[in-house]
Amino acid sequence: MRDQRAWREVNRRNRDWLRPWEATIPPPTPSGPIAHRPTYRQMVRHLRSEANAGRMLPFVIEYQGRLVGQLTVAGITWGSMCSGHVGYWVDEGVAGRGVMPTAVALAVDHCFRTVGLHRIEVCIRPENMPSRRVVEKLGFRQEGLRPRYLHIDGAWRDHLVFALTAEEVPDGLLRRWHRSRSQNTSSPGAPSAPGNTPPRN
Question: Is 31 inside a domain boundary?
Fold first, then answer.
Protein backbone atom coordinates (compact mmCIF):
# COMPACT_ATOMS: atom_id res chain seq x y z
CA MET A 1 0.00 0.00 0.00
CA ARG A 2 2.94 2.35 0.61
CA ASP A 3 3.70 2.31 -3.12
CA GLN A 4 0.39 3.94 -4.03
CA ARG A 5 1.67 7.49 -4.56
CA ALA A 6 4.69 6.40 -6.64
CA TRP A 7 2.59 3.93 -8.65
CA ARG A 8 -0.05 6.55 -9.42
CA GLU A 9 2.55 9.12 -10.43
CA VAL A 10 4.26 6.75 -12.87
CA ASN A 11 0.93 5.67 -14.34
CA ARG A 12 -0.28 9.27 -14.73
CA ARG A 13 2.92 10.33 -16.47
CA ASN A 14 2.81 7.34 -18.82
CA ARG A 15 -0.91 7.43 -19.61
CA ASP A 16 -0.49 7.81 -23.39
CA TRP A 17 2.49 5.45 -23.46
CA LEU A 18 0.55 2.64 -21.74
CA ARG A 19 -2.96 3.03 -23.17
CA PRO A 20 -2.52 1.04 -26.45
CA TRP A 21 -1.36 -2.04 -24.51
CA GLU A 22 -3.42 -1.79 -21.36
CA ALA A 23 -6.00 -4.42 -20.44
CA THR A 24 -9.55 -3.06 -20.37
CA ILE A 25 -12.88 -4.38 -19.12
CA PRO A 26 -15.28 -5.45 -21.89
CA PRO A 27 -18.78 -4.01 -22.00
CA PRO A 28 -21.29 -5.92 -19.86
CA THR A 29 -23.53 -8.52 -21.48
CA PRO A 30 -27.31 -8.24 -20.97
CA SER A 31 -27.17 -10.91 -18.25
CA GLY A 32 -23.70 -10.15 -16.90
CA PRO A 33 -22.61 -7.81 -14.11
CA ILE A 34 -21.25 -4.33 -14.79
CA ALA A 35 -17.51 -4.43 -14.10
CA HIS A 36 -15.57 -1.40 -12.97
CA ARG A 37 -11.87 -0.68 -13.12
CA PRO A 38 -10.45 -1.49 -9.66
CA THR A 39 -9.00 1.18 -7.41
CA TYR A 40 -5.35 0.92 -6.39
CA ARG A 41 -6.30 -0.60 -3.02
CA GLN A 42 -8.59 -3.13 -4.69
CA MET A 43 -5.80 -4.05 -7.10
CA VAL A 44 -3.33 -4.61 -4.25
CA ARG A 45 -5.84 -6.69 -2.28
CA HIS A 46 -6.53 -8.83 -5.36
CA LEU A 47 -2.80 -9.34 -6.04
CA ARG A 48 -2.20 -10.32 -2.41
CA SER A 49 -5.15 -12.73 -2.39
CA GLU A 50 -4.02 -14.42 -5.62
CA ALA A 51 -0.43 -14.60 -4.35
CA ASN A 52 -1.55 -16.17 -1.07
CA ALA A 53 -3.52 -18.74 -3.07
CA GLY A 54 -0.42 -19.65 -5.10
CA ARG A 55 -1.89 -18.40 -8.39
CA MET A 56 0.16 -15.24 -8.88
CA LEU A 57 3.52 -13.58 -8.18
CA PRO A 58 3.15 -9.75 -8.24
CA PHE A 59 6.24 -7.52 -8.34
CA VAL A 60 7.07 -3.87 -8.75
CA ILE A 61 10.13 -2.95 -10.81
CA GLU A 62 12.62 -0.53 -9.31
CA TYR A 63 15.44 1.25 -11.13
CA GLN A 64 17.97 3.37 -9.25
CA GLY A 65 15.80 3.18 -6.14
CA ARG A 66 12.49 4.31 -7.64
CA LEU A 67 9.40 2.51 -8.86
CA VAL A 68 9.36 2.36 -12.67
CA GLY A 69 7.00 -0.47 -13.51
CA GLN A 70 5.19 -3.62 -12.65
CA LEU A 71 5.60 -7.31 -13.50
CA THR A 72 3.16 -10.07 -12.65
CA VAL A 73 3.43 -13.81 -13.08
CA ALA A 74 -0.23 -14.83 -13.27
CA GLY A 75 -2.35 -17.82 -14.17
CA ILE A 76 -0.04 -20.13 -12.22
CA THR A 77 -1.16 -23.72 -12.68
CA TRP A 78 0.30 -26.67 -10.80
CA GLY A 79 -0.21 -30.41 -11.21
CA SER A 80 0.93 -31.82 -14.54
CA MET A 81 1.34 -28.37 -16.11
CA CYS A 82 3.39 -26.21 -13.68
CA SER A 83 3.16 -23.06 -15.79
CA GLY A 84 2.35 -19.36 -15.64
CA HIS A 85 2.32 -16.30 -17.85
CA VAL A 86 4.11 -12.97 -17.46
CA GLY A 87 2.66 -9.49 -17.99
CA TYR A 88 4.54 -6.22 -17.50
CA TRP A 89 4.83 -2.50 -18.11
CA VAL A 90 7.61 0.05 -17.64
CA ASP A 91 8.05 3.81 -17.41
CA GLU A 92 8.82 5.32 -20.82
CA GLY A 93 11.59 7.32 -19.14
CA VAL A 94 13.71 4.20 -18.58
CA ALA A 95 12.84 2.36 -21.80
CA GLY A 96 15.87 1.26 -23.77
CA ARG A 97 18.12 0.67 -20.76
CA GLY A 98 17.61 -3.07 -20.45
CA VAL A 99 15.33 -2.69 -17.44
CA MET A 100 12.46 -4.82 -18.72
CA PRO A 101 14.50 -7.72 -20.17
CA THR A 102 16.41 -7.86 -16.89
CA ALA A 103 13.19 -7.85 -14.83
CA VAL A 104 11.64 -10.60 -16.97
CA ALA A 105 14.82 -12.69 -16.74
CA LEU A 106 14.91 -12.33 -12.94
CA ALA A 107 11.25 -13.32 -12.64
CA VAL A 108 11.62 -16.32 -14.94
CA ASP A 109 14.68 -17.56 -13.04
CA HIS A 110 12.76 -17.24 -9.79
CA CYS A 111 9.83 -19.18 -11.26
CA PHE A 112 12.03 -22.00 -12.56
CA ARG A 113 14.62 -22.26 -9.79
CA THR A 114 12.73 -21.31 -6.63
CA VAL A 115 9.00 -21.67 -7.27
CA GLY A 116 9.29 -24.85 -9.33
CA LEU A 117 7.40 -23.89 -12.49
CA HIS A 118 8.31 -25.62 -15.75
CA ARG A 119 6.94 -23.27 -18.43
CA ILE A 120 6.47 -19.51 -18.75
CA GLU A 121 4.43 -17.77 -21.45
CA VAL A 122 4.34 -14.16 -22.58
CA CYS A 123 1.40 -13.12 -24.80
CA ILE A 124 1.90 -9.95 -26.83
CA ARG A 125 -0.15 -8.01 -29.36
CA PRO A 126 1.47 -8.39 -32.82
CA GLU A 127 1.65 -4.59 -33.13
CA ASN A 128 3.66 -4.19 -29.92
CA MET A 129 7.13 -4.37 -31.45
CA PRO A 130 9.02 -3.05 -28.38
CA SER A 131 7.52 -5.80 -26.22
CA ARG A 132 8.23 -8.41 -28.87
CA ARG A 133 11.87 -7.30 -28.93
CA VAL A 134 12.11 -8.01 -25.20
CA VAL A 135 11.14 -11.67 -25.55
CA GLU A 136 13.22 -12.03 -28.70
CA LYS A 137 16.28 -10.68 -26.88
CA LEU A 138 15.67 -13.22 -24.12
CA GLY A 139 15.25 -16.12 -26.54
CA PHE A 140 11.58 -16.96 -26.01
CA ARG A 141 10.13 -19.20 -28.72
CA GLN A 142 7.18 -17.90 -30.75
CA GLU A 143 4.52 -20.61 -30.67
CA GLY A 144 1.53 -19.18 -32.49
CA LEU A 145 -1.38 -16.75 -32.51
CA ARG A 146 -4.34 -16.57 -30.13
CA PRO A 147 -7.16 -14.73 -31.93
CA ARG A 148 -9.11 -12.16 -29.88
CA TYR A 149 -7.30 -13.34 -26.75
CA LEU A 150 -7.55 -10.33 -24.40
CA HIS A 151 -9.61 -7.17 -24.13
CA ILE A 152 -7.01 -4.42 -24.68
CA ASP A 153 -7.58 -0.71 -25.30
CA GLY A 154 -11.32 -1.20 -25.76
CA ALA A 155 -11.49 -4.25 -28.03
CA TRP A 156 -10.69 -7.97 -28.20
CA ARG A 157 -7.14 -8.23 -29.54
CA ASP A 158 -5.10 -11.01 -31.12
CA HIS A 159 -1.94 -12.01 -29.24
CA LEU A 160 1.21 -13.85 -30.25
CA VAL A 161 2.35 -16.53 -27.80
CA PHE A 162 6.01 -16.77 -26.73
CA ALA A 163 7.24 -19.41 -24.29
CA LEU A 164 10.23 -20.89 -22.47
CA THR A 165 10.64 -24.09 -20.48
CA ALA A 166 13.11 -24.70 -17.69
CA GLU A 167 15.15 -27.11 -19.85
CA GLU A 168 15.85 -24.32 -22.36
CA VAL A 169 17.72 -22.18 -19.82
CA PRO A 170 19.67 -24.62 -17.62
CA ASP A 171 22.13 -21.89 -16.60
CA GLY A 172 19.39 -19.31 -15.98
CA LEU A 173 17.76 -16.72 -18.21
CA LEU A 174 19.50 -13.77 -16.54
CA ARG A 175 22.90 -15.30 -17.25
CA ARG A 176 21.92 -15.86 -20.89
CA TRP A 177 20.66 -12.28 -21.17
CA HIS A 178 23.90 -10.89 -19.72
CA ARG A 179 25.95 -13.07 -22.07
CA SER A 180 23.88 -11.88 -25.05
CA ARG A 181 24.31 -8.21 -24.08
CA SER A 182 28.06 -8.64 -23.72
CA GLN A 183 28.31 -10.24 -27.15
CA ASN A 184 26.19 -7.52 -28.77
CA THR A 185 28.09 -4.62 -27.26
CA SER A 186 31.43 -6.16 -28.18
CA SER A 187 30.43 -6.68 -31.83
CA PRO A 188 31.62 -4.08 -34.35
CA GLY A 189 28.92 -1.51 -35.06
CA ALA A 190 26.71 -2.65 -32.20
CA PRO A 191 24.59 0.04 -30.54
CA SER A 192 25.65 1.21 -27.11
CA ALA A 193 22.19 0.59 -25.62
CA PRO A 194 19.44 -1.95 -26.32
CA GLY A 195 16.28 -1.03 -28.19
CA ASN A 196 13.05 0.16 -26.62
CA THR A 197 11.56 -1.93 -23.85
CA PRO A 198 7.78 -2.38 -23.77
CA PRO A 199 5.16 -0.36 -22.04
CA ARG A 200 2.98 -3.43 -21.56
CA ASN A 201 2.44 -6.75 -23.21
Answer: no
Residues spanned by the domain of 80: 4-26+39-186
Residue 26 contacts residue 156 (beta carbons within 8 Å): yes
**Considering the domain boundaries, does residue 32 fall inside one?**
no
Q: Give the full edge-to-edge strand order of the sheet including 66-77.
A: 57-63, 66-77, 83-90, 119-124, 155-165, 141-152
Assess if residue 34 is contained within a domain: no
pLDDT classification of 76: cutoffs 50, 70, 90: very high
User: What is the average pLDDT across 113-141?
Assistant: 96
pTM, whole model, 2 decimals?
A: 0.87
Find the CATH number of the domain harbouring 45: 3.40.630.30
Pick from 50, 63, 149, 148: nearest CA to 98: 63
In a domain, 126, yes or no: yes
Look at phi and psi of residue 65 and say left if phi exceeds 0, alpha if psi is from -120 to 50, else beta. left
Total domain count, the chain: 1
Rg (CA), the chain: 17
pLDDT value, residue 196: 32
Alpha helix stretches (DSSP H) within 116-172: 129-138
Residue 32: pLDDT above 60?
no
pLDDT band with cut points at 50, 70 and 90 for residue 27: confident
**Residues 104, 159: Cα–Cα separation, whole Å:** 18
